[in-house]
Design goal:
Structural class: alpha+beta
Shape: globular
CATH architecture of the largest domain: 3-Layer(aba) Sandwich
CATH topology of the largest domain: Rossmann fold
Length: 581
């Protein structure tokens, strides 16, 4: 601690304004919808550092906030009762810092609100420093909601606030450093400026990517040690097009409400039985759902089906995998038990397709995470969906895209590609993490927020995710280009005659209640489930539900280290509403 800075105070005032809209939206959607609905939102705060020496040595670099927020969403003006600001603390990403604002407010009628905002300071392309340091991604909650409570809380509004050039100039005019006697402190101002500029240089200055690291395996692949107190049995079955797949049963006791869990593309049922945290299977067993199945479909990395250049598309899972799995499961448990489904990613999309096409019979309830029937991706992902299959099939000549390419012995086009991807990803030292971001989304990282992942999970991404045949990309892109509708890949192909050309055609007849969930910072399927819920509300108002998890992405909704406290309770509440457990 620099003792000469003890007792020096820093003060400045800041005003940010923008728009926000009601409900759980992505930040960009919330801003646009709020602008159209004329729902402005602004925050006016004084930032006070009480002791500069403590501020500089603290890992949080925290300060007090006072002031008020204003806008029609809070009934005019709401005074800050208490608030906390954190300036450039380190994050779980090597190349990212944040500025956090959290204020607990009350308006004249006594209604309480929490505004939680974050500026994302991470270099991507071009001159993005100004945008990053002046853009506040904002959530508004009813009541005083702590960070720990936020994933389970319902969002009142979401949007973006920003600092204009004139506002920034006003901030500079208010910056003061004073000593214990109230006199201006030049050394205090210099130390604060040095800290701020140095933090920005760490992010935006030139740097080399970290050396890729391959961790030693501490958990066996496909281990079941994460599930305790259950009898585990495997149930292989075949699909109508000749593939061998598998159901795994985790039974503690007979139960009239049976849960089937379905993974995404190139993961496997391993993502639901991870030993490093309380996983979904264990959580269900511990909370009254004592008969749980997981499905490994053709997209599972437990099978070799993705490791060849093939013609399989999403319709194959909807027509062959899910119906065969449900039929096999019904043979095991009988026809009278209530069956609930929890599905993720492409598993959720294709199960939703199968359900909408009438291929899976009676389902009591379904929870579909990240994507259901409406497909939207970030712009950079759309570009990759178009170019990826062409590059893999005709330029690189690879059979599949492999997240472990960098660690393969020898040289190959895939290894060279992985080395190139590593060059642009400085957020961590895992080449598998970098490749997964390249394969599946937009962001650094794309699949999850590093802060949500246990180190053990991050170290074994190469075991938890497998290779991918790029023909699936073509089908996803076709859906994105079809106004985000779930359309059949080959409408005229008699192989798929039992499926509708557009899976939304008969969605009004689907009586299964759906809970659509997504992380608010989803770098893979963006706001797909938010859009889907909006469309479903127009067709069958009130039948289906939506929940958006703040500070979560795509994969971490199930694989994060704190999911038992953050994300699972909302799913469990939905299951209980539709069960007699």
């Amino acid at each position: 601690m620099r003792t000469e800075l003890q007792g020096i105070k820093i003060h400045f005032a800041e005003t940010m304004s923008g728009y926000a809209s009601l409900g759980g939206n992505s930040f960009a959607d919330g801003f646009e919808e709020g602008r159209k609905a004329n729902l402005p939102l602004a925050i006016h705060v004084n930032v006070d550092v009480d002791d500069l020496a403590v501020f500089l040595t603290s890992s949080e670099h925290g300060a007090r906030l006072t002031g008020f927020i204003e806008g029609p969403l809070v009934g005019g003006q709401a005074t800050v009762e208490s608030g906390r600001f954190m300036l450039m603390p380190n994050t779980a990403d090597l190349d990212r810092k944040v500025m956090n604002y959290r204020v607990y407010c009350v308006n004249a009628e006594g209604n309480r609100f929490t505004l939680a905002g974050q500026k994302e300071v991470q270099h991507h392309f071009g001159f993005d420093l100004w945008h990053d340091t002046t853009t506040l991604y904002t959530n508004l909650f009813v009541g005083h909601i702590t960070p720990e409570q936020a994933p389970q809380a319902n969002l009142l509004a979401t949007g973006i606030l920003s600092l204009g050039v004139v506002d920034f100039a006003k901030v500079l005019r208010t910056v003061r450093a004073t000593d214990a006697q109230g006199n201006n402190s030049i050394k205090g101002m210099a130390a604060f400026g040095e800290f701020f500029a140095g933090s920005l240089w760490q992010i935006y200055g030139p740097s080399l990517p970290p050396r890729p690291y391959e961790a030693t395996r501490i958990y066996a692949r496909s281990t079941t040690e994460g599930v305790r107190g259950a009898t585990i049995t495997e149930h292989p079955f075949s699909t109508g097009d000749g593939l061998g797949l598998k159901l795994t049963r985790f039974q503690r006791a007979p139960c009239n409400d049976v849960v089937l869990i379905i993974h995404g593309l190139t993961t496997s049922s391993d993502m639901f039985i991870m030993p490093e945290h309380e996983n979904l299977v264990q959580h269900l067993l511990n909370h009254g759902y004592s008969d749980v199945f997981t499905l490994d479909h053709r997209g599972s990395n437990r099978f070799p089906y993705n490791l060849i250049r093939g013609h399989a598309n999403l319709d194959d899972l909807a027509l062959y995998d899910h119906p065969a799995a449900i039929a096999t499961l019904r043979q095991i448990i009988g026809q009278n038990k209530r069956l609930h489904v929890i599905a993720h990613c492409v598993g959720a999309l294709t199960f939703g397709m199968s359900l909408a096409a009438g291929q899976v019979g009676s389902i009591q309830s379904a929870i579909l995470n990240s994507i259901a029937l409406t497909t939207n991706v970030p712009p950079f992902s759309k570009l990759k969906l178009g170019l990826g299959p062409l590059a893999c099939d005709y330029l690189l000549g690879v059979e599949y895209v492999n997240p472990r390419w960098r660690h393969q012995p020898g040289w190959s086009p895939g290894k060279l590609l992985a080395m190139g991807v590593d060059w642009f990803h400085h957020e961590c030292d895992s080449s598998e993490c970098h490749m997964l971001s390249f394969m599946w989304g937009a962001g650094k990282p794309a699949l999850f927020l590093h802060q949500n992942m246990a180190a053990e999970t991050h170290n074994r991404l190469g075991d938890l995710f497998g290779g991918i045949s790029v023909n699936y990309y073509r089908h996803v892109l076709k859906m994105v280009n079809a106004n985000h509708d779930p359309v059949k890949f080959e409408p005229g192909n008699p192989r798929y005659a039992a499926l509708p050309d557009n899976y939304f055609t008969n969605i009004a007849n689907v009586t299964t209640p759906l809970l659509l969930t997504t992380g608010q910072e989803n770098g893979v399927f963006a706001d797909s489930n938010i859009l889907c819920h909006q469309r479903l509300e127009k067709i069958v108002p009130g039948r289906h539900q939506l929940h958006v998890y703040p500070s979560y992405g795509h994969q971490d909704v199930f694989m994060g280290k704190n999911v038992a406290q953050d994300t699972f309770p909302r799913m469990l509440d939905f299951l209980r509403i539709h069960s007699n457990a």
